[in-house]
Specification:
378 residues; Double-stranded beta-helix; six-stranded mixed beta sheet; 25% helix; 28% strand; dioxygenase; 2-oxoglutarate-dependent dioxygenase activity
Length: 378
């Protein structure tokens, strides 16, 4: 609820009943008007362009009615009401105290000691609340397991069906992870793998990866996950200049392991949004190409920061480990969480299937389910 509203031609100031006040520019309010001539009632999409808004837009009246804000815009002589809770949710009048390299709200970084977030296969397929909880764990922690699933090949595709679609690559709709003779990728051997993000040589990278266990009687082969955002936070705190180097210059990645495929990308190891929010990690020693975009005078410092990040990632205290049993799977946010594997012996068998999907589908499904829950509660 709003207590009061005052205005100048270019700014509306409102006071909420909880105490704080907030200012909104006339042009911002007009662009975000909620009336049916500005936004489609069904889907909320904007029906006007910035060019449709008069350049001399101003506020001629602003008042509070039933706790909400009513504004009249000139020269259109257009009156629009803005709900108080909508204004509170979209307020941008705040001191900019955001830290360089910060994580977004709703993300919890972690290291060793975290109990791997987990949900039951049958529950997430049958119970909306369980599915919503599983999706929320992936959004918050960057990974989560599913247990007690079927052991039929291609079951991983049913995991992707819970929230979106498989992203097909040169590996096909999915790929096998088991020992091969003359493999095209080291993932298809029994060797241990350093913690890494997948496919950094793609632009954009696949944002989610699903690994599904069908057989696992081999000795070893435990899965390990490392929070790349926590690793980046540690580097930022220990060596701000090194952090800035890895965020400020692009690395290069390349893959050309099979006929007809030559994938290359030029992206930073630590990716920030323009306002300094941490949005991505790319780290994969197997796919690194020569770094040629760092100035000569900074190359040694860049490598020192690269080494330091690698040491943080390799620290056993950073990893959460688990051994997948047949019918178990896990999903990782491939823009954030690195995954590794301990080496395993030739005795027994180890067969996993993997596929990629897109995080926007997961976040969309989660947001829609959360909105439906809120609406049902009202």
């Amino acid at each position: 609820m709003l207590r009061s509203a005052t205005h100048t031609p270019s700014i509306v100031t409102v006071e909420f009943d909880t105490g704080p006040s907030a200012r909104f520019h006339a042009i911002w309010l007009r662009d975000n008007a909620l009336d049916p001539d500005t936004r489609a009632p069904g889907n909320g999409q904007r029906l006007i362009t910035i060019g449709d808004i008069p350049a001399d837009t101003m506020v001629s009246a602003a008042s509070v009615a039933n706790g909400d804000l009513t504004v009249t815009f000139q020269p259109e002589n257009k009156t629009v009401t803005f709900p108080a809770d909508w204004l509170a949710a979209h307020s941008y009048d705040q001191e900019d105290s955001r830290n360089f390299g910060r994580t977004a709200p709703g993300i919890t970084t972690w290291e060793q000691g975290l109990d791997a977030p987990s949900a039951d296969w049958s529950d997430v397929h049958a119970k909306p609340a369980a599915k919503r909880g599983w999706l929320a764990m992936v959004a918050e922690y960057g990974f989560a397991k599913l247990t007690s699933g079927p052991t039929e090949p291609e079951s991983l595709l049913k995991v992707a069906d819970l929230f979106g679609y498989v992203r097909q690559t040169n590996y096909g709709p999915y790929f096998e992870v088991r020992t091969e003779v003359n493999p095209t990728n080291l993932a298809f051997t029994g060797l241990g793998l350093q913690a890494h993000t997948d496919n950094p040589y793609r632009d954009p990278v696949p944002t989610l990866q699903i690994l599904y266990c069908l057989e696992n009687s081999a000795e070893g082969g435990d899965s390990i996950v490392v929070d790349g955002f926590r690793a980046a936070e540690k580097l930022r705190d220990q060596d701000p200049d090194g952090f800035a180097l890895l965020a400020g210059f692009p690395a290069r990645f390349e893959y050309k392991g099979s006929d007809g495929v030559c994938l290359r990308s030029r992206r930073p190891m630590i990716e920030l949004s323009p306002d300094g929010e941490l949005i991505g990690i790319r780290f994969n020693n197997r796919s690194s190409a020569p770094f040629v975009d760092i100035p000569f005078d900074l190359m040694e410092a860049y490598y020192a920061a690269y080494r330091q990040l690698g040491e943080i990632i390799d620290d056993p205290a950073m990893g959460v480990s688990f051994k997948l049993e047949p019918g178990e799977s896990f999903i990782v946010d491939n823009t954030r969480v690195l995954h590794a594997r301990l080496g395993y012996s030739g005795a027994g068998s180890r067969w996993l299937q993997g596929c990629y999907a897109d995080k926007d589908g997961l976040l969309s499904t989660l947001a829609a389910m959360e909105l439906a829950t809120l609406e049902a509660a009202e």
